[in-house]
Predict the 3D structure of the following.
Amino acid sequence: MWIYNIAERSALDTDRTWLYYSCMYDPIAIALVHAAHRVEARLEEALAGVGLSIAKFEALSVLVSQDRPISLSELAEKLTCVRSNVTQLVDRLEADGLVKRADDPADRRAVRAEVTALGRKRHAAGAKVVHAVLQEVAKELSAVDPLVLKRALDAVQ
C-alpha cells in the first residue's frame, strides 16, 4: 500500500471515482477493480444485444447445465445468492418465456425452474457474445504472460 498524495495523481487516475481513494492508496488494486467493472459493463452491453443480462445469463447457464428442472433453492445455492433474489430473477425469466415453473412432485410446497426451448436458444446466443467479449479481453491482455497474470489473480483472496 502506498500513502496517497494528491500531487502524485497521474493522467491514468482521472477516470477513477474518488469513492475508492483514501489515505491508503494502492494503484494496482484500484486498476483491478476498475478493470473488473469495465469487463462487466462490456458483458452487460453484449448480453443486452441478445435480450439478456449477466444475471439472466448466469441463471440460464445453471439451468442448461443441469438439464433438468431444479428447485429455486438449489438454483439460489448454485448462483450463490439468496432465494428471494432467485424468485425475482425467475419471475423475469418466466415473463420473457425463457423459464417455466413446475411443481415439485416430491414436495408440494416447492417449485422448480426449467429452461424452455427459447431459453436454450437465448442462452446459446448469450454464450456466443460472452465468448466474443472474453476473447477481446484476452487479446487486450495478450502482452502479459497469461500464467503470471493467472497466478497473480488467483493470489487475491
In short: Strands lie at 2-3, 24-25, 70-71, 99-104, 107-115. The longest strand covers residues 107-115. The helical segments are 27-48, 54-66, 72-79, 83-95, 117-140, 146-154. Residues 1-11 have pLDDT under 50 and may be disordered.
